[in-house]
UniProtKB/TrEMBL annotation:
Required cofactor(s): thiamine diphosphate
InterPro entries documented for this protein: DH_E1 (IPR001017), PDH_E1_Alpha_Subunit (IPR050642), Pyrv_DH_E1_asu_subgrp-y (IPR017597), THDP-binding (IPR029061)
Function: The pyruvate dehydrogenase complex catalyzes the overall conversion of pyruvate to acetyl-CoA and CO(2). It contains multiple copies of three enzymatic components: pyruvate dehydrogenase (E1), dihydrolipoamide acetyltransferase (E2) and lipoamide dehydrogenase (E3).
Annotated EC: 1.2.4.1
Name listed for the protein in its UniProt record: Pyruvate dehydrogenase E1 component subunit alpha
NCBIfam families reported in the protein's UniProt record: PDH_E1_alph_y (TIGR03182)
Signal peptide from the UniProt entry: 1-35
Stretches assigned to the Dehydrogenase E1 component domain: 158-459
Oligomeric and partner information: Tetramer of 2 alpha and 2 beta subunits.
GO biological process: pyruvate decarboxylation to acetyl-CoA
Swiss-Prot/TrEMBL keywords: Oxidoreductase, Pyruvate, Signal, Thiamine pyrophosphate
PANTHER family according to UniProt: PYRUVATE DEHYDROGENASE E1 COMPONENT SUBUNIT ALPHA (PTHR11516:SF60), PYRUVATE DEHYDROGENASE E1 COMPONENT, ALPHA SUBUNIT BACTERIAL AND ORGANELLAR (PTHR11516)
Length: 497
């Protein structure tokens, strides 16, 4: 005969009264803690992470974290970006920019992957030097500095150029000087500068629709970029590319691409060319490196995975840089991705991978150095996730009403240009006067670019059939050598070829 289940005396009613409010209180308390986690808590948890090299059993489960991330910012719930931030911090000490991870990752054990078997050079000291303030009243040890004076000023100038140029683009767009969609790069300058300023002119870069600053960092003159935005014939694409399709073969800029993911296979193709010339054609000299920039939304695109496989299979000299600004237009990264840590997709292919603070140009630069060196010496590709943030809407047509004000304020306080300026001044690498001089110089460069673009001519009708056919002589050019569109009877839409 089955025994009846044991009965327990009922709990006193006074103990049950607070229970309906318990989840509310816990969420409120959690939000306060996650908004500004106590340093002691972070140090204790990160120490446990470093010892075990895996998440402690008492950390929130991935399911709990994913549910918290889906909650709204309103009311008592946990802000998704704050949850993500604290979880990142808890695990950042053992899996962030301090190691390049790859085939050595087995069952959570993270072994560095590089030809020499060592860690990323300088990454540990980079993190320490950026976060710690120098001792008051004493000069910083020059050996501990992450950049020389010339390097620091170059980084600062490039970042200020990108920011000032984009701010001017916004003004010109609202004045009707630009047409179509214009996507600005404000806030993400540390990523472009940190990587591209390490490259040579013979190296290659592919970009996205947010490509103005990548073009500037790669050396395309501000005049040409602004003229292209104005649709003028003096632009880098003679006015035919516009905002989302910057291109300059001379500077190794292989294009901005309006469709997400389209630049990745182009960068892999350029890397294959470099590898082929070195190993098959036996060309000497440094092997050109390719860098593909793309956003977090692209990491769910099929071409991304196909190119990771091909690049790792053939050890191509390419670097995949994820500019994770947490939003794909209006879709939060944490709502659209099953595993929001994009850098972890690399080890699935045996690829060296890393996560880095994309709001800190010095940290980005240290990780980029190792990745570029690995690619150039033939050790293969690297996947690097840079966690950054755009300060404006998706485009200038976006009112930016979906992102919470608290989230925007949090990242605005971590402005990468302000952070670099503080580092240069605190460590006596540069003076206030030198930085002011750079800012004044950039203002003049941007103003000159606008004047040049405004005064430049529009493309002629003769350009309509250029770059359309492989052999224009049989199509767009008449027997007399003149373009068909120049014939008196030519009208748009009725061109006879």
């Amino acid at each position: 005969m089955q025994k009846p289940p044991p009965t327990h005396p009922p709990l006193p009613s006074r103990l049950l009264r607070p229970l309906p409010f318990l989840p509310f209180l816990l969420l409120r308390l959690g939000r306060l803690i996650l908004a500004r986690p106590p340093p002691v808590l972070l140090n204790v948890v990160s120490s446990c992470c470093c010892v075990a090299c895996s998440s402690p059993p008492w950390l929130p489960s991935p399911l709990f974290v994913s549910r918290c991330r889906s909650l709204t910012l309103d009311g008592p719930f946990l802000a998704p970006t704050l949850v993500a931030r604290v979880v990142r911090k808890l695990s950042f000490r053992c899996q962030s920019s301090k190691l390049l991870l790859g085939a050595g990752c087995v069952a959570g054990k993270k072994a560095p992957l590089s030809s020499g078997g060592g860690n990323v050079r300088g990454a540990v000291s980079a993190s320490k030097a950026v976060t710690e303030k120098p001792n008051s009243g004493s000069k910083s040890d020059k050996a501990d500095l992450l950049v020389t004076k010339d390097e620091g000023l170059e980084l600062y100038e490039d970042m200020v150029l990108g920011r000032s140029f984009e701010d001017m683009c916004a003004q010109m767009y609202y004045r009707g000087k630009m047409f179509g969609f214009v996507h600005l790069y404000n806030g993400q300058e540390a990523v472009s500068t940190g990587f591209i300023k390490l490259l040579k002119q013979t190296d290659f870069v592919t970009s996205t629709y947010r490509d103005h600053v990548h073009a500037l960092s790669k050396g395309v003159p501000a005049r040409q970029v602004m003229a292209e935005l104005f649709g003028k014939s003096t632009g880098c694409c003679r006015g035919q590319g516009g905002s989302m399709h910057m291109f300059s073969a001379e500077h190794g800029l292989l294009g901005g691409f309006a469709f997400i993911g389209e630049g990745i296979p182009v960068a892999v193709g350029a890397a294959f060319t470099s590898k082929y010339k070195r190993e098959v054609l036996k060309e000497e000299g440094d092997m050109p490196v390719s860098i593909a920039f793309f956003g977090d939304g692209t990491a769910n695109n099929g071409q991304f995975f196909e190119c990771l496989n091909m690049a790792q299979l053939w050890k191509l000299p390419v670097i995949f840089v994820v500019e994770n600004n947490l939003w794909a237009i209006g879709m939060s990264h944490y709502r659209s991705t099953s595993d929001p840590e994009i850098w972890k997709k690399g080890p699935a292919f045996g690829m060296a991978s890393a996560h880095v603070d994309g709001m800190d140009v010095l940290k980005v630069r240290e990780v980029a150095k190792e990745a570029v060196e690995r690619a150039r010496r033939g050790d293969g590709p690297t996947l690097i996730e840079c966690e950054t943030y755009r300060f404006r809407g998706h485009s200038l047509a976006d009112p930016d009403e979906l992102r919470a004000p608290a989230e925007k304020a949090h990242y605005a306080a971590r402005d990468p240009i302000v952070a670099l300026k503080k580092y240069l001044l605190d460590n006596e690498i540069a003076t206030e006067a030198e930085l002011k001089s750079i800012e004044k110089k950039i203002d003049e460069v941007v103003e000159d670019a606008v004047e040049f673009a405004d005064a430049s001519p529009l493309p002629g009708r003769s350009q309509l059939l250029e770059n359309v056919f492989a052999d224009p002589k049989g199509f767009g050019i008449g027997p007399d050598g003149r373009y068909r569109c120049e014939d008196p009877g030519f009208t748009a839409g009725t061109a006879q070829v």
